[in-house]
Design goal:
By secondary structure, this protein is α/β, with parallel strands linked by helices. The protein folds into 2 domains: 112 residues, Aspartate Aminotransferase, domain 1, CATH 3.90.1150; 218 residues, 3-Layer(aba) Sandwich (Aspartate Aminotransferase, domain 2), CATH 3.40.640. The strands form 3 sheets. It has a 7-stranded mixed beta sheet with strand order 2-8-7-6-5-3-4, sandwiched between helices. A 4-stranded antiparallel beta sheet has the order 9-10-13-12, with helices on one face. A two-stranded parallel ribbon has the order 1-11. Helix 4 crosses helix 7. Strand 5, helix 6 and strand 6 form a beta-alpha-beta unit.
Length: 354
């Protein structure tokens, strides 16, 4: 059979999303989804929007989603860009701010989509190793040729940088764009959004998939100086003028309005995370300090792949990465209290088995 793929399609190594099993009674702790439902206001907003004129195109700028995102972070709409999930927003940002002939800096242990975008858009990338404690040394990111991308808190480690360190990276790269990916910031991290008022080279990207329980809706937004936001619009309008549909806009806006509900959800996730980390440490696991809705843990009695397989046999799915430096670890999403108690019980049995 002839191969009709382009050279790029043939040669690229795509991002591998977490497993999404269907039709089984499992405990799914592998893709960092919220264990709790969205705010009731989200359902009301979607129902209300269903009665509108869906035959018409949505607002190309994001509509009510953009307005509420601006209010949520305390800035103006001109500081906000909305997209179909933060992955799309990040993809637009790679195209808007990074050039082929200028090398960008990213951590070696981080969100594995970053090198995929670099390859897809022909962007040279300098991989900066995290230290032996899986921490980012911010000095490594000073004076980049083409830009910087840092997830804070980082994934899959869960480790967060203080805002003072983020500011040092921004201040030492005033001639290029620094992107801070804050997918997990509302589980205990420091947000860099306040720095947007002071630095025109900082772009902060957020998602509603995690802390707002809207992974299935696909809603993300960027916060930055208006000239950066204009750059994102230039790319969007050269690709897809309407990435945010009407239902997504309504749902996202409703979620951002209900801070009280989601503050409660994040508080529950944090409490369960701390309990789970303590219980795993009792089992001999090495658990990295997390400011996310997951933990990164190294088993002691068996290797990570063995534990991953054993959990899966018991209908508990976590994430294992067959990659250098991290293949001894498991990334475990924080579920409900019952989910995590079942996980700990199963891990105890795995430890005790021969």
């Amino acid at each position: 059979m002839r191969n009709f793929l382009s050279k790029k399609a043939r040669n690229i190594t795509p991002y591998v999303a977490g497993e999404q099993p269907r039709g089984r009674d499992i405990i799914k702790l592998n893709t960092n989804e919220s264990p709790y439902p969205p705010s009731p206001r989200v359902y009301d907003a979607i129902k209300s929007e269903l009665g509108s004129e869906l035959r018409k195109y949505p607002d190309p700028c994001g509509g009510e989603f953009r307005m509420q995102a601006a209010e949520y972070v305390g800035l103006k709409e001109e500081n906000i860009f909305c997209g179909n999930g933060s992955d799309e927003v990040l993809g637009f940002a790679f195209q808007a701010f990074f050039d082929e002939d200028r090398r960008i800096k990213v951590p070696d242990i981080s969100y594995s989509f970053y090198p995929v975008w670099s390859q897809l858009f022909d962007i040279q990338t300098e991989i900066m190793p995290v230290n032996e404690n899986f921490e980012i040394d911010v000095e490594d990111y000073y004076n980049s040729q083409g830009g910087v991308v840092i997830a804070n808190p980082n994934a899959p480690t869960g480790i967060a940088l203080k805002i003072e360190k983020i500011e040092k990276v921004v201040k030492n790269n005033l001639n290029c764009v620094v992107i801070i990916d804050e997918a997990y910031v509302e589980f205990g991290g420091d947000s860099a959004v306040p720095l947007v008022r002071m630095y025109d080279n900082l772009l902060v990207i957020r998602t509603l998939s995690k802390s707002q329980s809207l992974a299935g809706i696909r809603a993300g937004f960027a916060v930055g100086h208006p000239k950066l936001i204009d750059g994102l619009f230039r790319i969007k309008d050269s690709f897809n003028s309407y990435p945010v549909n009407s239902l997504t806009s309504a749902a996202a806006a409703a979620a951002l309005k209900d801070k009280e509900y989601y503050n409660g959800v994040s508080k529950k996730v944090i409490e369960t995370r701390e309990w789970t980390a303590m219980e795993l440490e009792k089992l001999g696991y090495e658990v990295l300090p997390s400011k996310t809705n997951f933990i990164f843990a190294k088993p002691k009695v068996k290797n990570a792949k063995e534990v991953f397989d054993a959990l899966k046999e018991n209908d508990i799915i976590v994430r294992w990465f067959d990659k250098d430096r991290i293949r001894d670890y498991l990334r475990i999403t924080i579920g409900t209290d019952d989910d995590m108690k079942t996980l700990v019980e199963c891990l105890t049995e795995i430890n005790d088995s021969k």
